[in-house]
Amino acid sequence: MPAGDPFYITTPIFYVNDVPHIGHAYTEVAADVLARWHRQAGDDTWLLTGTDEHGQKILRTAVANDTTPKEWADKLVADAWIPLLETVGIANDDFIRTTDARHENGVLVFLNKLYDDGFIYSGEYEGYYCVGCEEYKQLDDLLETPDGDFAGQLVCKIHGRPIEVLQETNYFFRMSQFEQKLLDLYESQPDFIQPESVRNEIIQFVKQGLQDLSISRSSFDWGIQIPWDERHVLYVWFDALLNYATAAGYGSDAAQFARRWPAVHIVGKDIARFHAVIWPAMLMAAGLPVPRRVFGHGWLLVGGEKMSKSKLTGIAPHQITDTFGSDAFRYYFMRAISFGQDGSFSWEDLSARYQAELANGFGNLASRVTAMIGRYFDGVLPGPSEYTDADLAIQRTVATAAEDADVAIERFAIHESIAAIWTIVDDLNGYITTQEPWVLAKDDAKRERLATVLYTAAEGLRALAVLLSPVVPLATAKLWTALGQEAALGDQRIRSAGEWGVLRPGTAITKLEALFPRIETTEDAGAA
Ligand code: MSP
Q1: What is the mean pLDDT of the chain?
Q2: Considering only CA atoms, which residue is closest to atom 23 of ligand 1?
Q3: Ligand 1 centre and the CA of 239: distance in Å?
Q4: Cβ neighbourhood burial of 284 (10 Å; 0-12, 13-18, 19+)
Q5: In whole angstroms, how large is the CA radius of gyration of the chain?
């Protein structure tokens, strides 16, 4: 993608019924890494996140806590969801709440358009509804539990909680009209839904036939009122999906919307269907372009099941970052789990990777190289003389890693991108071991060779700082400063990071504190 292209990326907007766990933080980090990469590539990048505040689930939580839904949402947003961004280092450009006036106004514009154009009609809904999922359910989505608290009742397969039976006069969206158009979209734009497993599941689902969708509720009032019938509030998913458009200016700022839209949506695979079926159908009905891509990532599992607060398996992000820091959180989840697949979290694995890869692999390399330039050249970066095969091999590693990392990011293969960059860490560590600069330093006749080795190592670190800054922004900023660089790290074009010879000989290099300090024991970390 040439520099300057628009890149609008979104996270799901999160329900404010509860506080965030590491599954939510995982989505935030993935979208943030992709956004930071594109921003640093010079693309016209915009990262949106936010909160989903209407619907019965939030209403019931607020009532159970003796407060109003708006007060509850305000409190959770201020105390939990905004602080999450800081906890895991998210550089979002915007934060939308579905209770924002800009959102509600845009939703009304959209609804009126669909109503005027004949895509909405009044009808009878009779069927099942799961408040936990905020979703209309079919019999296939339910189970009859033989025992336990809900013995003999129909429960949602996802939550194991009883389902509600609705009989309401509702407004319906003519989604069934879009069945073939959606199938054509999946066919003509094969990367519209990713990964392949999610794509196949969605295609199967749509091929079974689409029904019209009930888009209003009349038995409670926490939501956006239907403009032509104030007895109804909008179905929470119809409301929530529109955040991606209203935040980008739909209904309020046409120029901004034209600049940003369409978006790339990062979502958990559990909600890919809403994004890859309902949402494009809504957009088609309104005559708007469909999203560029919907990527459904995997789940963080605990004991083989999706981590969730309702099952009491949620881990708060700060439990990890308090001990390991936000960079380690970001690195671990992006590196250890193939983006698009499920992954299990374990304190042991996190601790082991922190120690081996971040502290010993990358951090130690950075400290040693900067310390040797301090010791042998009084902290002034020496210039290289003739390059040997070993030096040229490092230059090739850097060039190849930068290229491969960018290609992997284009495919959203964040884990592969980091693995490609890590070849620089591994090769440079091997290079230092075989070149033995501490031996060269003992022989005045080898001064030029020592200079070339340390310049080569410093250039490798320079490339690492640029390439890893989307993943570990705090550590790379420290490294960048230690490399004596005044221009902002964020201004270093990531797609040129593989070019050799950027550091100027004569630059003052300073000593670097441990980027990833030793952490005492796994037990300590687990108990944090
Ligand atoms: N409010 C809706 C989304 C509306 S988007 C228009 C919603 N919110 S949510 O708070 O329940 O969670 C949304 C997202 O959190 C999931 O899609 C997923 O990205 C992330 N995760 C929640 N639990 C997770 C795991 N256990 N593992 C990985 N991601 C998880 O759904």
Answers
A1: 94
A2: 23
A3: 16
A4: middle
A5: 26
Write the pLDDT tens digit of every residue in 467-485: 999 999 999 999 999 999 9
Cis-peptide into 262, omega within 30 deg: yes
pLDDT tens sequence across 363-373: 999 999 999 99
Q: What is the mean pLDDT of residues 384-411?
A: 98
Token pair in block for residue 442 = 């003992």
Q: What is the pTM of this model?
A: 0.96
- Residues involved in catalysis: 21, 24, 130, 133, 156, 159, 306, 309
Q: What would the pLDDT profile of 427-448 be if each residue is shown by its tens digit? A: 999 999 999 999 999 999 999 9
Structural domain spans, the chain: 348-496
- pLDDT tens figures, 336-353: 999 999 999 999 999 999
348-496 to CATH, choices 2.40.50.140, 1.10.730.10, 1.10.579.10, 3.40.30.10: 1.10.730.10
Angstrom CA distances, 172 to 70, 151, 176, 213, stand at 27, 33, 11, 5
Ligand 1 pocket: which of 16, 27, 243 to mutate (most atoms within 8 A of CB): 27
Question: Could you count the other beta carbons within 10 Å of the beta carbon of residue 187?
Answer: 10
Distances (CA, A) of 153 to 56, 91, 132: 21, 45, 16
- Share above pLDDT 70 across residues of the chain, in percent, rounded to a whole number: 97
With beta carbons less than 8 A apart as the criterion, state whether 135 and 237 touch.
yes
Q: How far from 460 is each of 104, 196, 216, 311, 485, CA to CA, in Å?
A: 50, 36, 57, 46, 14
Alpha-carbon gap, residue 47 to 37, rounded angstroms: 11
What's the CA-to-centroid distance between 308 and ligand 1, angstroms? 10
What's the one-letter identity of residue 102? R
Q: Which residues of 60-75 are buried (b: 16+ CB within 10 A; e: fewer)?
A: ebbeeeeeebeebbbe
Q: What is the pLDDT of residues 496-528, one digit of tens each?
A: 999 999 999 999 999 898 999 998 765 554 444
In this predicted model, what pLDDT tens digit does every residue of 5-39 receive, in sequence order? 999 999 999 999 999 999 999 999 999 999 999 99
306 in contact with ligand 1, CB cutoff 6 A: yes
Amino acid identity, position 215? I
Phi, then psi, of 338 in degrees rounded to 5: -65, 120
In this structure, the residue with its CA closest to atom 6 of ligand 1 is 241
Q: Which of 110, 267, 332 to mutate to test the pocket of ligand 1 (most atoms within 8 A of CB)?
A: 267
Whether the Cβ atoms of residue 264 and residue 293 lie closer than 8 Å to each other: yes
Closest to 200 (Cα-Cα) out of 219, 175, 188, 183: 183
User: Which of 379-394 are b and which e, b meaning 16 or more Cβ less than 10 Å from the residue's Cβ?
Assistant: bebbebeeeeeebeeb
Ligand 1 neighbourhood includes 26 CB (under 6 angstroms): yes
